[in-house]
Amino acid sequence: MWLRLLTGGADALHDWPAVRVCDAPLKGQPARWIAVVPDPSNRFPRARTGEVGLVEGWQLAQAVQEVIEMDRDAAVRRPIVAVIDAPSQAYGRREEAFGIHQALAGAAGAYAEARLAGHPVIGLVVGLAMSGAFLAHGYQANRLIALDDPAVMVHAMGKASAARVTLRSVDALERLAASVPPMAYDLRSFATLGILWRVLGLTDPALPDEQDLALVHGALEDALADILADPERGLEGRLQGRHRQASRRVHALLEAQWEAAD
What we know:
Layout: H1 2-7, E1 19-26, E2 29-36, H2 54-70, E3 80-86, H3 93-97, H4 100-116, E4 121-130, H5 131-136, E5 143-147, E6 153-155, H6 159-166, H7 170-177, H8 187-191, E7 198-200, H9 210-228, H10 245-261
Parallel strand pairs: 2-3, 3-4, 4-5, 4-6, 5-7
Antiparallel strand pairs: 1-2
Helix pairs in contact: 2-4, 6-7
């Protein structure tokens, strides 16, 4: 829905059923928009409800690499917008056997390559951003924007899966998350980790009106301007989050050891 609304229903560039790619303007300049969507007929059963699987990983990589190649000699590199609503990577024996780790790494690597090549990369989280799916599709963005809604979550693992792995009930997990922000599933707690650039409160994220769309468009344009004004292409700024003290300390220690060994 969000890809269609934000691009004015731009035509898909590929006939891929689970990865939608289109070109549409952002702040008056050409931009590439990419989303992963459910594909009930996906030949891989584990990738039928919006998960990023083997095929989706490689298609994401191709969609981004196309942009890098098109603008290789251009003075201005076009922006890339990742519209993110992905419940998970596709877990399955076939996926593991055929190398889903390589497919998702290909996608993440393409986004990182685009960012470092000067393409402004913006991630817009409109639903779930979970597990390897988020790492492959959006996490490498220069700026991440998320809608402030209970249905929008960013996490390494879904609640049910985390409960099974930690041998806790979902209720016990939620009580633990209340005092440990990185464990929490609500967006406000995630924002304290410094990874989100902006959180948007809409009237109705499930049925956005013109005012909501204008707010999202405005945030995307602000993010683009912010990226263009920033000479840095790395993600170091995320370490400044309120609950990233330990990460900053580890980075400082590693840097000191590296300098001492040089």
